[in-house]
Amino acid sequence: MDREEILRKAQNENNDEMEVQIRDKSMKWTYIFMVIAAGTFSFIRDMKGYPVMDLTATVSVSVVAGNFYRYIKCRDKSHLIIAVIMVVIFVISTIRFFMGH
User: Fold this and answer.
1) What is residue 100's three-state secondary structure?
2) Can you spell out the DSSP letters for 43-72?
3) Taking CA 32 as the corner, what is the angle to CA 27 and CA 34, rounded to the nearest 5 degrees?
4) Which end of the chain is flanked by fewer CB atoms within 10 Å, N or C?
């Protein structure tokens, strides 16, 4: 394979590393603000005596999806551990939600 052929293949891939990096960082910021917003709303709902388990379940399942995807792609066990912990939190909060807590 000569140099020109390698350059042609790279140009045809349509996989811009900068776009991938920006997308990955945007997901990080999405997580951060989702957790902050859910935490704020959970605090307000708890102060008023409303149940907060639906927000907990929503945030938990989102974190599970992101960390499980990262584990599949990178095989970093820390992502798997976080995903498993969050699955447990998701299951508990979902059960409590349906029980009316």
Assistant:
1) coil
2) HHHHHTT---HHHHHHHHHHHHHHHHHHHH
3) 90
4) N
